[in-house]
Amino acid sequence: MSKEKTSLLLKRESADLGVLSVNTDLSDVTFNAITPSSPSSKFTKSGLDQVNPATCPFRGVVLSFWDNILGPRTRHVWNANRDNPLPSDLLSHITSQVLSCEICRDPYKCDIDFKFYNLPHKGVVVPAFVFSAKGTHGMSVHSLYVVIPNTELEFYLGIHETLLSCFQRLTRKLRVILDKNPFDVSVDVFKKYLSDCVRTLSLLHNTSLATNIALADTVFCRGHARVLDSEFLARCIASHLMTFGRSLVLGDTPEKINLVLNTLCMFNSESERRCSLPFCVKDPQAYHHDIYLQGLLKGSDNSFLPMTELLVSSYPTTIIDLTSRDVRQMQNYSEHAFQRFATLKNELICLQYGNFEELLVQDQDLINSSVFPDTLVQTLVKEIFELPGSCCVQAAYIAQFMRILHKRAQCLIESVRAESNEGQVLVKSNILRKIRLDLQLNAEGDFLIVLATAEKLKPGLYTFLKPHRSLDRDFKNIDMYSTKV
């Protein structure tokens, strides 16, 4: 039947019956097989530099934005594997999921919101960061999200805090770069920062410190006891615990560096070990913030401290120099939080004025660990070498020490809760001395070790008891149960 006859039949039946009832074979009717692509489906794409797709746990990173006419749109894709790029239908689905509920968001809002999507029907999990930035037609809502196969969900949960810190910093940089540069230039500049971050997170997936460290690979083993004397070892461990389990080890040989890293790793939790890196001789990496344990080989390339990365870390860090036998640490947590904010701010100011190089920060005044004498770790190191040479006995003794440390931290939290009336009043110095006396924390180092452990259990406790020196304690009340630096 011809098209003209079919059209007349439809008109006649529509006029007679008031409905359309087509009872004909449409196999001969030809349709246009090519449909024009929608503008909302167009996006640019590129790869990530020096990222091995065979070992990278991510499929790619995507920048999308909200278009007031076309709705959620994908703007640029950084594929981890150029030969296997992310499909357009998957990107369209994820972008719609992330941005569709942001239709009422204020485009001038400065906050960075985090979202997490588990899409088993698509085989991916997606951590996303929603923020406002300069779009194609002024300010608009954007999102920067990472596409991770759902087979790597357990790995992602282990590095969630590290990934969150890294991408929040990247998002702040991207927002400034987009505001001051054309989009093509912004993509090229941001690609370097993004590649460094993805490469570091890929190392955590493949070469992080094992969750179960063998005691034979630590200084506690009789064969390695001569590498570090007991006094220096106790100072390293004590300072490591004071700085929330974060340390940078500098040495002249990779063997010594990794030996100390394995030793300090015994005092970190399983998730913290997952976010720690051994020193790799074949592929040495630069220091990266918010990695718990890292090592650098001293020499012409690493003769200076990476102060910028140390300052933008969420917690202060211990610097252990194996050649000079120095154990130093950053300022306490309250001071470090202010320095971190200032460093991040200066980093964005440099980007705003077109300086895309790494921010250079002058060396800070570091604190020698001997300023905070302790008895907890001194006793631990003395007794652990008096135990039989069995690795199982020594490992169990260290585990028991960490359990007692957490119990003391919980006691400190409950004592401060009771004395401060649930955080409504400040704890006076005489009350704090009484709490320390009751918990047998007379030594300053012992108190700082327990306080750092308690801070991880109850964020805000450290700044409540030891606020920044610029805060007036008589007029500013800090609620430890609602404040998190």
From TrEMBL:
Q: What is this protein called?
A: Uncharacterized protein
According to its UniProt entry, this protein's organism is Dreissena polymorpha
Instruction: Name the InterPro entries for this protein.
Output: C9orf72 (IPR027819)
Q: What is the lineage of its organism?
A: Eukaryota, Metazoa, Spiralia, Lophotrochozoa, Mollusca
Any single biological process term in GO: autophagy
Looking at the record's lineage, which domain of life comes first? Eukaryota
Q: A Gene Ontology MF term for this entry?
A: guanyl-nucleotide exchange factor activity
Q: Name one GO cellular component term.
A: endosome
UniProt xrefs under Pfam families: C9orf72-like
